[in-house]
Amino acid sequence: MHVNSVPTGKRHDRVWDVNSKLATALVHSGLGERQANSFLSELNIPAFSYKLVSARLREVGNVVEEVAKESTNEALEKELAAVEQKKGKLVVAVDAGWQKRGSGRAYDSKSGHCSMVGPETGKIINYSVRSKDCRVCSRAESRNESPREHACYRNWEGSSKGMEADMVIEMVKDVQSKGCTVAALVGDEDSTTIGRVRANISNSIEKISDRNHLKKILGNSLYSLKKNHPVLTVKIIKYLQSCFNYIIAQGEGKPLSGSSLQKSLENVFEGYAKNSIKLSTVGSTQANESFNRMVSAKAPKHVHYSSSGNLNYRVAASVAQKNTGHRYLVNVNKKLGLSPGYHTQRLARLRDYQRSKQRALATTRAFKRKRLEKKAKMHQKLASAEVREGVSYQTGCSLDAAISDDIQSIPAPVITPEYLPLEPKTLNDSCMTYFDVETTGLGRDSHIIQLSAVNSQNTKFNRYIKPARPILPQASEVTGLKFQNGKMYHDDREVQSIGISNALKAFILFLKEIHNTVLVGHNSKIFDVPILITALEKNGLLNNFMSSVKGFIDTLPLFKECIPNQPSYSQPKIYNTLFGELYSAHDSMEDVVALRRLFEKYHLVLY
């Protein structure tokens, strides 16, 4: 029987305070009249009229814009103080956003906004809004009448693409009218804003590129090369992006090969090399992008607010929240002569505290590492699911005449290998069998074309396997294996080959000759083991295989522990480092013999 007391407040100018606060709530939360009435009606609370909320929005909106302008002036003073302390020049980051998403072919948004952020404080020091529409003017034009007197927010007649340059020019002029000189603009490479700024204000204003946007452009170029160069994996692309972003690469990985890939990469980086001086100083528009997301939350792109002052109010609210936090709501209420409200202040303090705590956490190395690991795990899981499912969603895929009604998916793996540490005592009575596979490609869905092994008693196993799919040219270049006209060739020499099922059955018989077999491979946890288990599972031999082996050992972590600070831990490099010799790498038979020699050199570490 508890009763919640919901105070409606007093009146001001014959208007209930709660109605003005309702308008503030709509602007702050990103709701419109329809969404708010749907929410209230479900709670069995009477709806409010559109006429009421329109009048209150005009009342509240002017105050919100006033609060936003005060916050930008305060932010500008702090930015100038920080710049003066460092004895530097005023550099600002600018970026625009539209209220309608561009399709890539057309940008026809009726409105847009632009922000100017001071990099030293991360605050918005100026902002601007452009709108090509006005509800009152449009209605009068349709009736061939003169519009009634009203506050018109239509201030743009040009194209949507031209809004950004015009808003930046306006903001720069406004900042300079306050006695400040803008020395440089940080922005993306998607517009000709800097050229128009120089033509209309000063030729001395410099352009600084946005590091994140440059990294994205580079990534798009590299991903376009991936189609013709499969060796350019996602991991390598991200590494190249990191090297580019940090200027100097740290560490040394496995070198890329192929003259065609080298030429393509040279073409990509040639454009950046020509602008090396320009790229030596870059900035960031990340704060602007964060502001754009805040605006899209208060003014969703699927709702048309630009035909009235509603859009301006919501952009101004975003500016105030970005600069001062949720407590801007308290300032708005005070300027309206309304009580700040206990619950309003309480939630504002909570949200600002949560935001500051989140911001402090997001800058830690542990948080960034965890975020990258989570993202990589998600992409890996997604890629695995898409491979198993095949084409399920693609532009125009249902128009393909060759599409089959008999759509099947590759089932998920029956079991997931469990990785546990092996105690030295458990290995005393085990027989080490060193194995390696060569495949049709570099992905985990590749097919095995050579399977080799040698055990501690020097018994060898080697089978060439007829592939069920073409061998990629990159794989043939590395392994020397080709399959033409039903025949297998190794270094242009014909070799006998059999089917995958017979090869796996022979491998299992080889393993059963000795009890307590442990399979040893280099980097096998990532590549060889998943491919081998997938092949066994597809051929119904997994259970038989599992009863024949005790487990797996991956030597890559072992060598990293025993031989630290190496530029590369590929097996051929480690072999050459330790023995000063080379061998025919990527012939799986040669690989297992070399691996046995490497492993036995460090067997004391295990035992």
TrEMBL record:
Residues 431-606 form the Exonuclease domain. This is Exonuclease domain-containing protein. One of its GO terms (cellular component) is cytoplasm. It holds the Pfam family Mutator. One of its GO terms (biological process) is DNA catabolic process. SUPFAM superfamilies: Ribonuclease H-like. Belongs to the exonuclease superfamily. TREX family. Gene3D superfamilies: Ribonuclease H-like superfamily/Ribonuclease H (3.30.420.10). Residues 66-93 form a coiled coil. Keywords: Coiled coil, Exonuclease, Hydrolase, Magnesium, Metal-binding, Nuclease.
